[in-house]
Amino acid sequence: ALRQDLPSNDYNSPHHRRMCKARFEHGAARDLIRQPRGQSFLWTVLRHPTRRAVSLFFHFRVSRTKVEPTDENFERMLRNGLRPQLEDHYLDYMRLRPKGGNDDPVAAIRDIMANYDFMAVTERMDESIVVLQYLLNLPLDDMLFLNAKVHGGFDDARYKNRCVHIVPSFVTPYMQSFFRTDEYWQTTIRWDEVLHELANQSLDLTIESIGRERFDKALSRYRVELKRARDACTEEAVFPCSVGGTKMPDELTQKDCFVHDMGCGTPCLDRHVQANGLSHVYFDG
């Protein structure tokens, strides 16, 4: 991953960030217009495909449609109902060119690795965020956030306009064996697993290029400040669903969140940042 130049407040400067454009809610990279390097920053987040499958089953099937979380139901969903959302998911969504008739997955992965500026790893989110802060020369306050959709809590009230309890996920010994040994499953996640491993390797290499001691210092500081911010703002934040599962008025969540349940608690976080002098603290600050 390559570090970007410091942003400029001069609109005429080539380093001025004229706009911040993002696709969220699982949009495909091929729908983006890739600007030349130096004028854009293309990045994404990858989760291990098996962990992602467990999350999909429990969120969309168990929590929302009340499917019993039995081994039989889980395996059936993986082989049938959820298959279009699982097979080569990252490979398809991250590619910048349409899939051809004689598509070569290895060539597609090489193209992805050559064109993305950064890949965050869900299982290593704190490390990924601190690396992102370093790469984009962002202040610490831009990296603080509150969690949404926590296991045991409630979702964003977008399913049938009501709050849905998020059933905590679990994996039985049978399903652990299935994920580890089943030939169908290994084939389904093969290329996504390669991308996830490459993202981990890239993250490690970037951390090493920063310097382990230097990085660990920044990571430790980030974790301390993130905990302080969450302790100060989690209870004040207005998510679409309350702790007890009551759908909150839209006029309240629209003031407190960027969109849906994303970026909630920003007003409180902004006040916390100002009160604690974090608005101009950079990676080595």
What does this structure look like?
The protein is an all-alpha fold and 285 residues long. It is 48% helix and 3% strand. Strands 1-2 form a two-stranded parallel ribbon. The longest helix has 28 residues, at 183-210. It is globular, with a radius of gyration of 20 Å.
Q: What's the story with the biggest beta sheet?
A: 2 strands, parallel
Report low-confidence residues grouped into runs of 5 or more. Answer: 6-20
Q: Please provide the ordered H/E string of secondary-structure elements.
A: EHHHHHEHHHHHH
Rg over C-alpha atoms, rounded to the nearest angstrom: 20 Å
Task: Summarize this structure as a short list of keywords or feature phrases.
two-stranded parallel ribbon, 11 helices, globular
List the helices and strands and how they pair.
Layout: E1 43-46, H1 49-65, H2 71-81, H3 83-86, H4 89-94, H5 105-115, E2 118-121, H6 125-136, H7 173-181, H8 183-210, H9 212-233, H10 250-256, H11 266-275
Parallel strand pairs: 1-2
Summary of the model, kept short:
This protein is mainly alpha-helical.
